[in-house]
Amino acid sequence: MITARWTALVPIAVLSLAGCGSDPAGDTRRAASGVASAEAGARIFRRCAACHTIGRDSTDTDGPNLYGVMGGPIGERRARFSYTAGLKALGGRWDEARMDRWLTNPRALVPGTTMNFAGLRDPADRADVIAYLKTQGP
């Protein structure tokens, strides 16, 4: 009788533990589904603030000011900032998909970039940063 009771609890324990741990596919689904937090993105962005400002009237530093970056042109948005030839050649606009690829691994997207950042591995972190960037502009 005791054995039967424990046997019945095993599936429940397994299902309970299924939610523990890392789930990269789940993080990707969360990022893609729009469940991103601009507030969490602001906290993550603090790492970026070592090189980037993000205010309407802020100046460029080691990296360009990122105010209004989302939807803006790639490699030409800040007239006084010296973008690399590779970034200029990429062209287009910063949409969510491009920003996600950039934040994943800048050097893979634009070989020769001078941005000294390895990237954010966690898709949910990238989605949060993108959500934050979308709040910082017109």
Q: Can you offer a commentary on this structure?
A:
With 138 residues, this protein is mostly helical. The chain has one domain: Cytochrome c-like domain (Cytochrome Bc1 Complex, Chain D, domain 2). The protein is 48% helix and 0% strand. The protein is built from 7 helices and no strands. The longest helix is centred in the N-terminal third of the chain and has 17 residues, at 2-18. The protein starts with a helix and ends with a helix.
Calculate the terminal CA-CA distance, rounded to whole Å. Answer: 68 Å
Q: Give the name of the CATH architecture.
A: Orthogonal Bundle
Derived structural class: mainly alpha
Mean pLDDT: 83
The CATH fourth-level homologous superfamily: Cytochrome c-like domain
Task: Give the gist of this structure.
The chain is mainly alpha-helical and 138 residues long.
Descriptors:
Cytochrome Bc1 Complex, Chain D, domain 2; mainly alpha
Write the layout of secondary structure elements.
Blueprint: H1 2-18, H2 24-32, H3 38-45, H4 85-90, H5 96-104, H6 106-109, H7 123-135
Helix pairs in contact: 2-7, 3-7, 5-7
